[in-house]
Amino acid sequence: MTYDVGATGTRIERLVAESTDPARADELVRLLVGLYGEALTRIAAVARDTGVLERLAADPVVSELLVVHDLHPRDTTQRVTAALEEVRPYLGSHAGGVELLGVDDDGVVRLRLEGTCHGCPSSTVTATTAIETAVRRAAPEVTRVDVEGTVAPPPVGGNLLQIQPTPGYVAARLPDLPLSGLECPVPGARP
After folding, report:
1. Distance between CA atoms of 113 and 108, rounded to whole angstroms?
2. What pTM, to 2 d.p., does this model score?
3. Reduced to 3 states, what is the DSSP secondary structure of residue 86?
């Protein structure tokens, strides 16, 4: 079972906002986070010396908590690099790739698509669905992912097909898609 730390944080914020006394609820959350943070700090100090912290950080839930408390043994660039390694087999199966250009102090990750992914009509979907999802999962503190080599989707309207969202339509949040669900127009490419 996966545990969504981000969704839990959002739910906690919503509960605090809906509380009859938001100030007390906020204080309660800060006290609990501080208590768990102090405990994690002490655990991390022992675990770092024995190499256990690296193994604990491989768990996605533990990893996010270590990031929240600034205790993760890997910095943002190292975690983004590891996330890109996860998507490289998929991109490589389409004769494409991705290069990390850098992570700046504001948490903006700059990437460049390579091979057939650069300029591919599906590049925006690839970048947002596969790459960005992997990067945000590994480094939730990232504020933005800029990708060179994507092709903007055609503007809505003016197309032969007049299929558009109905007024008032609100797109639901898409779940994380498996990489095998993505389509690539590269002939002969294997998903």
Report:
1. 16
2. 0.66
3. helix
